[in-house]
Fold Acetyltransferase (GNAT) family protein.
Amino acid sequence: MPAPEIIVTDTVDETIERIIGGGLNRFNDEHVGYADRQPLAVLVRDPLTREIVGGASGRSSLGLLFLDLFFLPTSARGQGVGSDVLRRFEDEGRRRGCRSAVVYTISFQAPEFYKRHGWTEFGKIPCDPPGTYRVFLTKDLSAD
């Protein structure tokens, strides 16, 4: 077989994600003997328009809860909504059997929010703009 061609692109569509993600998922499933990955979202809906305005999304897999995205509009901040969304996300992770959770945020986003809710920083990496960091946090879900 000739050497495969390697392509660099900024276009990643569903087909590409399915090929790469599906291949990795099959490899993991063969290694551990089961597949338990499951998406998770906790949504915030505007009570008047009924539109989704924010929330948290991620997934659970192999005993770990991944919090991938978390956004609230300014109008929903400072009212305990974020704390409620995070608590419900963590509770669903526990219900699914997750022992730990992981998230990364940016230093200007919400690291202190997570720390106030029992998350522990385990690393940070500089990013742009200068003086900014990606902050990695974890939480032991069996402790609550």
